[in-house]
Amino acid sequence: MKILIMIDSFKGSLSSSDAGNIIKDEIEKLNPREDIIVLPVADGGEGTVESMSELDGASLIEVQVENPLFEKILGNYAIIKDKNLAIMEMSQAAGLVLIKDRLSPLRASTYGVGTMIKDALDKGIRNFIIGIGGSATNDGGVGMLQALGFRFYDKNANEIPPSNEGLKDLSKIDLSNADPRLKECSFKIACDVDNPLTGKRGSAKVYGPQKGANPNEVEIIDDNLSLFHKKTMEVITNADDIYPGVGAAGGLGYAFKNYLGAELSPGIELILQMLNVKDYLSEADLVITGEGKMDFQSSMGKAPTGVAKLAKTYGSKVIAFAGVVDNDAVEVNNYGIDAFFPILDQIRSVEDAMDAKIAEENLRRCVNQVFRLIYLYKN
After folding, report:
1. Is the dihedral of CA 11, 17, 21, 24 positive or negative?
2. Contact 106, 165 (CB under 8 A)
3. Per residue in 239-257, is it b (16+ CB within 10 Å) or e — as a string?
4. I want to staple 332 with a disulfide (CB 3.0 to 4.6 A). Which of 97, 105, 110, 337 is the partner?
C-alpha cells in the first residue's frame, strides 16, 4: 500500500512529526515493504509553528516579543526561505496561555504580534501565514498596527495606549507612517470562526468572557471596537466590520483584513495548500490522520477532517488516531474519516496520559493492533 500520514500534534505530548514517524515505524515493523510518507500538518492553531518548522527547508526563529501585558518574552515562528514565507501563531505573543492567571481584556495588547512580523520583514520575508486562535486580546489589532507604524491619536494628538482601553479615546488615525514594506507583503490568516467585529455575535460578546471580561467590560469593549471601526472608516472608506472572521482574536482579523489586505481562510485549507499535498493524495491508498483530542469540534474545519475531506476527493480510505475521544466524536465519520481509534490504554490522570513516553507507548500499541487487523483481512 501507499500510505500517507498527516497527523496533527498531540498537543503537550507529541509533535506532528513525532506522531507521524511513530506510526510509520510501527507499521514497518509489521510490513517493511510498505511505501509510507510522513507530512507534518496543523490547522493554523497552537502547534502550527512547531509542525511546519519540521518541513524541508524550514527553520525555527526565536525572537523577543511583548506578551499581552507588555512583558518581554521569547516567541517562535518558522520561515521557509525558498518560499519567502513566514508561518506564525499570534498566540506566541498575544495568547491566552501567556497570562492565563492575569487576564485583562481591556489592557491586553497585540503589540507583540507586530513585533514578530517586523522581525520577519527585517529578514526579507514578504509572505505570511498567521494563525490567530487562542488570543487573550480584544484590541481590534490596534496594538499590532501600532508596532507596524500605524498611528492612533486622541483629541490632544497623543498616541493612545495599544489596547482596547486606549480605543475609547481614539480621535484620529494616521496611515502615513506604516512600514512601507507592508505594501510588498501577502498575508493569509488562518481563521476558523466567522464572527463580525461587534454586536451580538461580535468578538467581545462571544469571546470576551473567556478572556476575563465581566458583563460591564464586555459592553465597554464592544463600544470601543465600534468607535475603532467608525474612525477607521474615515481613512479606509471600504473597511468591513461584518466580513466573516474579522471578529476573530478580539478583532485582530479586522486589522489584518482592513489595514493589511489579508485573506481570511480556514487554517487547514491554508496549510494543505502550502504543503501541495494533492500529488501525494492522488497516489495514496490509505491516509492516516488524527490529533490529541477528537470531539465534535474536530468536524468543524480542524486538521483531521480537513485532511479527510481532501483525501476523499481522491478515493483514499482514511483512519485516525487520537489521544482521547468524546462521545460526539462520531460526527467525524460524516466528514471523511472512515474510522477513528483512541489510543488511551487505561484510566489515567490527564498529566499521565499526556506524558510523552506514555503517549508514544499507547500510540505504538494502538497502531500495531489496528494494522494487525488490516493485514488479517488484506492478506
Report:
1. positive
2. yes
3. bbbebebbbbbbbbbbbbb
4. 337
What does the pLDDT look like over 135-151, one tens digit per residue? Answer: 999 999 999 999 999 99
Q: Are 163 and 214 in contact (CB under 8 A)?
A: no
Query: What are the distances in angstroms from CA 108 to CA 144, 171, 313, 330?
Result: 11, 20, 43, 38
Cβ distance 329 to 337 under 8 Å?
A: no
Rounded distance, CA 66 to CA 241, Å?
27
Task: Find residue 54's DSSP bridge partners.
Answer: none
Q: Hey, what amino acid is at 92?
A: Q
pTM above 0.90, yes or no: no
Grid cell locating 68: 499581552
Grid cell 480605543 is found at: 167
For CA atoms 75, 79, 84, 87, the dihedral sign is negative
Rounded-to-integer distance, Cα 50 and Cα 34, Å: 27
pLDDT tens, 6-42? 999 887 789 888 999 999 999 999 999 999 999 988 8
